[in-house]
Design a protein that fits this description.
Blueprint lengths: L2 E3 L9 H5 L5 E3 L3 E3 L9 H5 L5 E3 L2
Antiparallel strand pairs: 1-4, 2-3
Length: 57
């Protein structure tokens, strides 16, 4: 499963998109994860300052 974004917590800071090694995240009003491109590495989860991203099983 791909990373999931809690849009209520996401502040659209862009940190997750900056650290994603496969560029699977875009940011508009909130972060959006392209599930087809996400490799489930967890980098975005570790770097999100708001704790808005989780890896779903």
């Amino acid at each position: 499963m791909a990373a999931k974004v809690d849009i209520d917590k996401c502040t659209a800071c862009g940190t997750c998109a900056e650290v994603c090694p496969v560029e699977a995240i875009t940011v508009e009003d909130h972060a959006i994860v392209n599930e087809d491109e996400c490799v489930e590495c967890g980098t975005c989860v570790d770097e999100c300052p708001e704790g808005a991203i989780t890896l779903e099983e």
